[in-house]
């Protein structure tokens, strides 16, 4: 009897087109959108060459420091290249700036260097910073020369020029050899678009709740004719419901496996070396979704549509809070309202996967696995106490 | 009137999703619109940096921390490795600098001590690293010539405080305009999802077989019935649009009263018309009420993701944008993007915008024709 009911529950679930759309197809479609929209987002934040223009006038031509600095920073062979520079007339530069082909341009006049930009931004700031750096280097040499003069180390103007030239090459030498020692100790796994895929998995797991709900409804006398028939049969209720729910769980796991296969092989999402742990967490997530669905089926005394609506709303709000519509949301909640995300099953899944991806230790991951199991247990206990001893004299 | 009343009754049934789409829009907008200073002058960007100083805050170390503090935004995060790592991952901070113990002393002894950092590797982080190494380099050069620590930090500070003059050509408040464009870009989702969802549900309610049979044999003229349905649906779309426009005045504020703001509103109106025709087409194609929800999500989320409503257009891969040309949302969002930096409105600058709006109208026309063809083919009952 167990296998018989299991088989038919399985068939019923698979033939419901809406169910299959939401639990199988929708996550895959959404994943495709994520992939299309986010595939470039991180590389476009990386440091790129900044397009600038330099006004070619006599003052600039005659100033060796400025000319060489810009040449070096625009040199394609230089590893620290910052700019893609055009040397143009002032009118041309203004046109380029208006058409937004350059971030800004640089003018050197007798009054000193000036940077012209059209708005404030990080590229403009870097252009300003670099020109500042060059004038600061100039200033530094002047200061050192002045203090040498004050100490009486040099006296005549001829000496001063020679000293200045010597100091210049000396300072450049020091600047090169005293390269600051900066060691980057941040983790390599910093790709935050991964969170989007984690919320997608969370969504799929929780949408599975609809499967659990439909599976339980099949056995409830107040929900369907089928439920009435099943209820009058001599089979034990526990066995009946367990076999239907098991069918729901397996359908759900098939849906999630499809999503994994699709994201790994088609979208090339890298879940890291810890795939078995990812799978373990996902299985727990499916259980949480399923038990949420069962609890809704039992506790909400209303029709199918309302129950589905509640499950979808809980899932979407949960995913929103765990960062599906912008990962900053998850961070804000984690930081300011940690309790909310502690009881949010979508966040348990997202956070567990995040901990696995980003953290070196597994503590936080296992806390989330345990939370999911506790959440499922609570839902199941609540459902069982709701389902026990249901009797209808007439219906 | 009967048709209109029924329309309102069905509308009342789908208020929950409409509220949901609006709440998401407001949440998104409120999120991105936290008032930042709007100023016309040049403001240097300050990268978000966290400074963890294990050394005594004196001498050269103090100079360094002061320099970083004045050129970066120091983010307040509790000194806990997990909290710092989380902040870095979610880009709350872009660059973390750990100054080791005895840094100042070791530096003066010429040891060139190592500084550990954590970095997100993006523009902000690169700029923060430039600032850090700039200070160390200048300090290293001066340290060769100057013995006295006090004189040394004073000289470094003096050199690094030298500023370059920056001229800014635009007086446009791009900051506020960008935000209003962001709001209208996101409204692409809310308008599209709202229109398609409601109109499809209404059309499918009117199309269920018993009701169609009843209206078919009633004395009401077929054309009048259709016209009423069209008017009430258009009315709904316009009300939805008006509501979102009003909301934009509340959320974005004064910048909506400029000429650019007016064009944004106009553009969203043209888009609403287009969304209305899309909804009509889908409503005519789909009979099953349950399927509407799925289709709304795919259509609205799809065009929002692919055309840059959620993710800024400049971050989308070019191939995606090329494909997006076939979607109306693309033309709508392109106009919003152009308005962000448009200084003067004249025929020359408005031409591309008029072209985009024209494209939207062409789409609307195509959808209307298609919807009519479909409904004619499906007119027969049973």
Automatic annotation (TrEMBL), chain A:
GO CC, any one term: membrane
UniProt superkingdom: Bacteria
Segments forming domain ABC-2 type transporter transmembrane: 17-384
Main location: membrane
Membrane topology, from the record: Multi-pass membrane protein
Location in the cell: Membrane
Ranges that cross the membrane: 20-38, 197-220, 240-265, 277-299, 311-333, 365-387
The keyword Magnesium is assigned to this record: no
Example of a GO MF term: ABC-type transporter activity
Keyword field contains Transmembrane helix: yes
Keywords: Membrane, Transmembrane, Transmembrane helix
Protein name: ABC transporter permease
Source organism of the structure: Bianquea renquensis
Automatic annotation (TrEMBL), chain B:
Keyword set includes Transmembrane: yes
Alphabetized UniProt keyword annotations: Membrane, Transmembrane, Transmembrane helix
Residue stretches making up the ABC-2 type transporter transmembrane domain: 19-371
Superkingdom, natural source: Bacteria
Residue stretches spanning the membrane: 18-35, 186-206, 227-251, 257-282, 294-313, 353-374
Location of this chain's protein in the cell: Membrane
GO molecular function terms noted in the UniProt entry: ABC-type transporter activity
GO cellular component: membrane
Topology versus the membrane: Multi-pass membrane protein
Pfam family, any one: ABC2_membrane_3
Listed InterPro entries: ABC-2_transporter (IPR052902), ABC2_TM (IPR013525)
PANTHER family linked: DOXORUBICIN RESISTANCE ABC TRANSPORTER PERMEASE PROTEIN DRRC-RELATED (PTHR43027)
Protein name according to UniProt: ABC transporter permease
Organism: Bianquea renquensis
Classification of source organism: Bacteria, Bacillati, Bacillota, Clostridia, Eubacteriales
């Amino acid at each position: 009897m167990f296998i018989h009911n299991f088989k038919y529950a399985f068939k019923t679930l698979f033939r419901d087109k809406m169910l299959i759309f939401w639990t199988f197809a929708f996550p895959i479609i959404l994943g495709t959108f994520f992939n299309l929209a986010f595939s470039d987002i991180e590389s476009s934040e990386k440091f790129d060459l900044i397009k600038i223009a330099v006004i070619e006038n006599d003052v600039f031509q005659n100033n060796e420091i400025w000319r060489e600095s810009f040449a070096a920073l625009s040199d394609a062979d230089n590893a620290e290249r910052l700019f893609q520079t055009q040397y143009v007339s002032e009118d041309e530069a203004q046109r380029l700036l208006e058409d937004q082909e350059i971030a800004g341009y640089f003018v050197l006049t007798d009054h000193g260097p000036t940077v012209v930009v059209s708005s404030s931004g990080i590229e403009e700031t870097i252009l300003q910073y670099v020109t500042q750096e060059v004038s600061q280097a100039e200033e530094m040499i002047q200061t050192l020369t002045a203090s040498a003069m004050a100490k009486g180390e040099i006296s005549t103007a001829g000496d001063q020029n020679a000293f200045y030239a010597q100091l210049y090459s000396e300072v450049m030498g020091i600047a090169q050899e005293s390269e600051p020692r900066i060691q980057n100790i941040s983790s390599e796994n910093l790709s935050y678009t991964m969170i989007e895929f984690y919320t997608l998995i969370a969504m799929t797991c929780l949408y599975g709740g609809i499967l659990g709900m439909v599976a339980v409804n099949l056995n409830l006398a107040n929900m369907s004719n089928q439920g009435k028939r099943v209820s009058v049969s001599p089979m034990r209720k526990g066995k009946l419901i367990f076999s239907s729910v098991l069918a729901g769980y397996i359908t759900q796991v098939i849906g999630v496996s499809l999503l994994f296969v699709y994201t790994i092989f088609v979208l090339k999402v890298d879940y890291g070396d810890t795939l078995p742990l990812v799978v373990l967490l996902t299985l727990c997530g499916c259980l949480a979704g399923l038990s949420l669905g069962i609890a809704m089926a039992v506790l909400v005394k209303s029709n199918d549509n309302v129950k589905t609506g509640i499950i979808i709303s809980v899932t979407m709000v949960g995913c929103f809070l765990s960062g599906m519509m912008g990962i900053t949301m998850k961070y804000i909640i984690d930081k300011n309202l940690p309790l909310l995300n502690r009881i949010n099953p979508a966040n348990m899944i997202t956070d567990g996967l995040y901990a696995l991806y980003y953290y070196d230790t597994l503590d936080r991951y296992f806390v989330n696995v345990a939370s999911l199991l506790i959440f499922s247990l609570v839902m199941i206990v609540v459902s069982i106490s709701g389902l026990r001893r249901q009797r209808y004299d007439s219906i | 009137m009967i048709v209109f009343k029924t329309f309102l009754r069905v509308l009342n049934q789908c208020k929950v999703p409409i509220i949901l789409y609006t709440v998401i829009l407001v949440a998104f907008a409120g999120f991105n619109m936290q008032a930042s200073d709007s100023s016309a002058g040049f403001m240097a960007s300050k990268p978000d940096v966290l400074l963890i100083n294990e050394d005594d805050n004196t001498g050269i170390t103090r100079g360094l921390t002061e320099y970083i503090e004045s050129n970066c935004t120091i983010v307040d995060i509790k000194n806990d490795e997990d909290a710092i790592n989380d902040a870095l991952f979610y880009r709350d901070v872009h660059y973390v600098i750990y100054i080791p113990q005895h840094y100042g002393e070791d530096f003066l002894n010429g040891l060139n001590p190592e500084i550990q950092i954590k970095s997100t590797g993006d523009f902000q982080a690169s700029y923060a690293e430039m600032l850090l190494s700039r200070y160390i380099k200048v300090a290293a050069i001066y340290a060769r010539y100057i013995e006295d620590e006090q004189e040394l930090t004073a000289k470094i500070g003096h050199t690094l405080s030298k500023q370059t003059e920056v001229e800014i050509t635009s007086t446009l408040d791009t900051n506020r305009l960008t935000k209003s464009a962001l709001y209208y870009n996101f409204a692409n989702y809310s308008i599209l999802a709202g229109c398609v969802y409601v109109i499809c549900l209404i059309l499918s309610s009117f199309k269920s077989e018993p009701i169609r049979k009843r209206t078919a044999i009633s004395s009401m003229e077929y054309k009048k019935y259709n016209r009423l349905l069209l008017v009430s649906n258009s009315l709904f779309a316009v009300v939805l649009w008006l509501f979102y426009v009003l909301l934009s005045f509340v959320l974005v504020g004064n910048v909506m009263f400029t000429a650019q703001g007016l064009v944004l509103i106009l553009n969203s109106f043209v888009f609403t018309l287009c969304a209305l025709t899309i909804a009509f087409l889908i409503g005519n194609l789909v009979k099953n009420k349950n399927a509407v929800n799925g289709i709304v999500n795919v259509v609205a989320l799809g065009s929002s993701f692919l055309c840059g409503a959620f993710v800024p257009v400049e971050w989308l891969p070019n191939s995606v944008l090329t494909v997006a040309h076939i979607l109306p949302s693309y033309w709508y969002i392109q106009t919003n993007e152009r308005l962000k930096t448009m200084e003067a409105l004249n025929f020359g600058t408005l031409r591309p915008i008029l072209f985009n709006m024209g494209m939207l109208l062409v789409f609307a026309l195509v959808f209307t024709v298609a919807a009519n063809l479909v409904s004619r083919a499906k007119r027969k009952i049973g």
